[in-house]
Amino acid sequence: MVLALLGLILFRPVLGVWFKHLLDGDSEGQREDSLIFENQNLKAEIAKLKEIDARTPENYAEDYDYGFVYARYPFNIKNQVLINVGKDVGVTMGKTVLFGAYSEDEIGRSVLFGSIKNVFEATSLVETIFSNEWRSEVRIGDKQVLGVLEGGATPAVRLINKDANILEGDVVYSADERFPYGLAIGYIKDIEMSSDHLFKEAKLDIPYDLAQVGLVLVLK
Amino acid sequence: MRHEEQRERMIFFGHLLFLGVALLLQTWSFLADYARPDFALVLLLVSALFLDFPKIFLMILIAVFFLNWQPSLSLDLIVFSILPILAFLAKKFIPGRPEVVGFFAVFLGTLAFYSISTFEVFWSNLVLAGAVVVWNLVFGYLAYSVIAKFLKPLR
To answer: Which of A17, A19, A164, B84 sits at a 20 to 30 Å CA gap from A81?
Structure first.
């Protein structure tokens, strides 16, 4: 038994991921139906955010793939998920991952979810904005105030100019060269001064629950 | 003699059952959004103080197989595998009360795991780091208490 497990871990580690799916007990078809249902409920929440809808640029994505979430990083600090698209469909490292779009018409309403950290033959690892390792430049609201998004269980925007006029409810969107400009991420909430009183900082209100995200979109 | 062997088997089965619960808790998605105990790592560190090497090695392999989240073996899981072995060696070669060795195994094991897997973020976010360490020590205490009371091998 020890040798068999050792062999599987060394030569077929992905079987552990499939094994967990077996324990879930859903067939692939049921799973897809269930994920689409769950995601449509979340999408409805996102659709309520008219500011996000208005803020996000249209037609920035010409080529994309959907990915189902297969597994999550099991420990603290990092927040990564494994999705079921990889080299086989042309996914490469650093690509942008969105959440909230289920057809071409809806891509403009999706929000930034993460980026591809590692690519395998038929799967990819996504670093999500909920990972404590996440850092990216963002802008806030109509005045386009600059800030830095720091990931975590509750992502926060830091290094905001202390004189900048930002309000709770302002939309935060991507301004980092690694991602398409203007992708909505969430709302500003709980604005306060940093501990050194040199900057403002704020928590980020994310319009969905990470635990329920089952289907994402990878821009190529 | 046969009765003792059966009892040893039952005790090991109890450890495996405990590991199964820890693995489920570790992967439970609603817990994953917050700082939480590293159930599987802590349980293996504590079990390593009670079990012999082949048994703890089998438990490590089961945990790694179950927890792996990507199609290649990561540094995180390699460190995860080595730490309980170090705890096992610590029990063998470092004299001291087992509960004190257990405390340091969980405390240092947690620091070592995150220092190697994500050094910069862990040490730059001391509130989160502290929360993880405290959670692990609390779960370690519970695991140690349960194992010492119900799952302590005869030899």
So the answer is: B84
What residue spans in chain A does CATH classification 2.40.10.340 cover?
Answer: 61-130+211-219
What kind of fold does domain A135-205 have according to CATH?
A: Thrombin, subunit H (2.40.10)
**Nearest-by-Cβ selection for B33 from A1, A78, A210:** A210
Q: Is the pLDDT of residue A11 over 70?
A: yes
Residues of A with CB below 8 A from B24's CB? none
Token pair listed for A114: 């993460």
In one letter, which amino acid is B19?
Answer: L
- At residue A118, φ and ψ (nearest 5 deg) are -150, 145
Cβ neighbours of B130 in A, within 8 Å: none
Among B25, B52, B56, B69, the residue to mutate for chain A (most A Cβ within 10 A)? B69
- Condensed to tens digits (0 to 9), the pLDDT of residues A31-86 reads 555 555 555 555 555 554 555 555 555 545 567 888 998 888 889 888 899 999 99
Q: How many helices (H) and strands (E) does chain A have?
A: 4, 12
ipTM: 0.85
B 10-39 residues with CB < 8 A to A: 26-27, 29-30, 32-36, 38
Q: Which two tokens stand for residue B6?
A: 């059966």
Q: Give the phi and the psi of residue B89 in degrees, each rounded to 5.
A: -70, -35
pTM listed for this prediction = 0.83
Residues of chain A with CATH 2.40.10.350: 135-205
